[in-house]
Amino acid sequence: MEKSSVKKKGFVKEFVDFLQTFGVIGLAIGFVIGVASSAVVNSLVKDIINPIVGLVLPTGNLQSLNATVTSPVSGKPSVFLYGDFISQIIYFVIIALVVFIMYKQLKRMGLAKM
């Protein structure tokens, strides 16, 4: 009975050492914060930036900008949603900026390793 408890302690200690060595807990926390900030930035782009940009557009909405091209062969139209693409670029730039600012702050505090 005593041998199994020694193995358990060894396994638990080994697992804790693994978590500390590879920074898995920090990675998990970063992932959760990343998901939350992604939702905030998505809302910022969709609910604030797009309507502001839409004020100067004839359609009134950035995401609804599109171009329709009719195929000369089949006669069917193809719709290119370039407004949604522009929204996704804005979203990416904001996320990249947030990550850069967080990295700069962590580096300044001596917590970033690179």
Quaternary organisation: single chain
Proper CATH architecture = Orthogonal Bundle
- Beta-strand fraction estimate: 5-15%
Q: The CATH topology is what?
A: Non-ribosomal Peptide Synthetase Peptidyl Carrier Protein, Chain A
Low-confidence segments: none
CATH class categorisation: Mainly Alpha
Trace the largest sheet across and list its strands: 1-2
Kindly report the name of the CATH homologous superfamily. Answer: Large-conductance mechanosensitive channel, MscL, domain 1
Total of DSSP H or I helical runs spanning 4+ residues: 3
Number of domains: 1
What class would the helix/strand composition place it in? mainly alpha
Mean pLDDT: 81
Got a strand count? 2
The biggest sheet amounts to:
2 strands, antiparallel
Characterize the overall form: elongated
Q: Secondary-structure element sequence?
A: HHEEH
Percent in helix: 55-70%
Radius of gyration: 25 Å
End-to-end distance: 47 Å
Would you spell out the secondary-structure blueprint of this structure?
Layout: H1 2-22, H2 24-54, E1 67-70, E2 77-80, H3 82-108
Helix pairs in contact: 2-3
Brief synopsis:
The chain has helices spanning 2-22, 24-54, 82-108, and strands at 67-70, 77-80. The chain is mainly alpha-helical.
Task: Give short descriptive properties of this protein.
single chain; 114 residues; mainly alpha; Non-ribosomal Peptide Synthetase Peptidyl Carrier Protein, Chain A; two-stranded antiparallel ribbon
Can you put this structure into words, describing what you see?
With 114 residues, this protein is mainly α. The protein has a single domain (2-108), classed as Large-conductance mechanosensitive channel, MscL, domain 1 (Non-ribosomal Peptide Synthetase Peptidyl Carrier Protein, Chain A), CATH 1.10.1200.120. The protein has three helices and two strands. It has helices spanning 2-22, 24-54, 82-108; strands at residues 67-70, 77-80. A two-stranded antiparallel ribbon has the order 1-2. The longest helix has 31 residues, at 24-54. The radius of gyration is 25 Å and the shape is elongated.
